[in-house]
Design a protein that fits this description.
Elements (H helix, E strand, L loop, with lengths): L2 H7 L7 H8 L8 H16 L15 H4 L7 E2 L5 E2 L5 E4 L9 E5 L4 E4 L10 E4 L6 E10 L10 E2 L6 E9 L7 H4 L6 E11 L7 H9 L9 E4 L17 E6 L10 E13 H4 L29 E3 L2
Parallel strand pairs: 1-8, 2-14, 10-13
Antiparallel strand pairs: 3-6, 4-5, 4-11, 5-7, 6-7, 7-9, 9-10, 12-13, 12-14
Helix pairs in contact: 2-3
Length: 312
Amino acid sequence: MNLLKHCKDFRLMHLHLLALSFACVLADFELTAEYLSDLKADEALEIAAGEYNYDNQGNDWTGTCASGQKQSPIDLIYDDADVVSIPRIRFQNYNQQLQTPLVLVNNGHTANMVLPPTRRGERASISGGLLPGVFEAQSVHFHWGSANSKGSEHAINFERYDVEMHIVHKNTRYANLSVGEASAFSDGLAVLGVMFRARPRPISQHYGLNKVFNALPRIIPYQSNTTITGMFNVGQLLGNIVTGEFYTYQGSLTTPDCAESVTWTVFKDVLDYPNAQIAKLWNLQDSRSRPLINTYRELQDINNRTISFRQL
């Protein structure tokens, strides 16, 4: 195998991401040491989760996934929520261009992209809402259904949507820890949830999301990877949604080990996105070379948790 040739394309199939990253830093795309470290930490977190699939929508997962009392996702119901006067989500450096290239990976469970610092060296971050601190953006991934089913994880007023995007953040209190290590603390992580609604329109104006979705055909096989180059900032992932109205609650990761360490912020507004773009997700393959579809966990019991809603 001509390794450097494959690295120039950055599409080595079925190789460990760690080995891929080290090899490709020698080729045309030189990734920063910080980004390489983040990629390795993300790979380690995926390995630590062990083997799992969505055949039973998570109902066969064990450990905290089965025994936890603050599990996610849940149905976010306006009539059952506390309407509260809390600050907006404040976005810092969300409009600053990220260091590129970005690495998009099919890890067998989702399309995942680790987010590097901005070109100024700072990380995009969020605060406000009911967030217990400042949280820096770490990665983004997606959950989806199939041609015949919706695939968002959370439901809003009993309705599921076609796709749910998760932007994962880590509390700056744990800046020296990995995302996996920070998940051991109840205030370790914060996730923004954005719903996508499939529309028949053929063209999207959402530039950043288009760059991600246009790269999906290059990561169809399990453990395949590609790069996204050029101008890109985290704010582009939000499209044109209204961020002033949202549900927020204390919950968990929605994949093993389902650590109960997440402050969830799920926006009420829904992003309309072309069906042709969303359909690209259905072509991805899992570790068994099966279609990677219906990648959502079953709704979990609320267990008397407080669900808060901020409205304009």
